């Protein structure tokens, strides 16, 4: 009887262990993927916050150092607006880290086009 019970127990263990191993491996992979996704989302959120701060600072700086004087003298026209956006773009780019610039390129494509869009949106927001 003991030998039969031992053989039965051994058969059950041989059958259960591979199934349990596959389950545990899949569970670990799933939890690892979830942790990676959370980490990636947090990293992306950090980049987006960094971009927003850089754009706001660049627009404020350009307004104070370039636009305000031209407006007060009545010389802020379309060509000067383009210069102001270019100045804000250069300021924003120079304050972003390489990893943030790489993030923009990977996530959105052209860095300049993306930042100009953000700068124009910030200008509109500051006008309101």
Layout of helices and strands, plus pairs?
Layout: H1 2-73, H2 78-95, H3 98-108, H4 111-127
Helix pairs in contact: 1-2, 1-3, 1-4, 2-4
List keywords for this structure.
single chain; 128 residues; mainly alpha; 92% helix
Q: How would you portray this structure in words?
A:
By secondary structure, this protein is mainly alpha-helical. The protein has one domain. The protein has helices at 2-73, 78-95, 98-108, 111-127. Helix 1 packs across helix 4 (111-127). The longest helix is centred in the N-terminal third of the chain and has 72 residues, at 2-73. The radius of gyration is 29 Å and the shape is rod-shaped. The mean pLDDT is 84.
Compute the CA-based radius of gyration.
Answer: 29 Å
Number of domains: 1
Basic shape: rod-shaped
Order of helices and strands: HHHH
Summed over residues and divided by their number, the pLDDT gives a mean of 84
Structural class, please?
mainly alpha
Percent of residues in β-strands: under 5%
Runs in which pLDDT lies below 50 for 5 or more consecutive residues are none
Helix fraction?
over 70%
Sheet with the most strands, sense and barrel status = none
Total number of β-strand segments?
A: 0
N- to C-terminal distance: 88 Å
């Amino acid at each position: 009887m003991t030998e039969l019970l031992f053989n039965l127990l051994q058969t059950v263990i041989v059958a259960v262990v591979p199934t349990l191993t596959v389950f545990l491996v899949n569970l670990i992979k799933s939890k690892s993927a979830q942790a990676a996704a959370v980490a990636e989302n947090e990293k992306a959120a950090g980049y987006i916050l960094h971009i927003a701060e850089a754009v706001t600072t660049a627009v404020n700086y350009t307004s104070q150092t370039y636009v305000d004087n031209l407006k007060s003298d009545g010389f802020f026209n379309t060509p000067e607006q383009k210069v102001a956006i270019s100045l804000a773009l250069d300021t924003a780019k120079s304050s972003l880290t390489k990893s943030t610039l790489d993030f923009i390129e990977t996530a959105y494509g052209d860095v300049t086009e993306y930042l100009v869009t953000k700068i124009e949106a910030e200008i509109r927001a500051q006008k309101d």
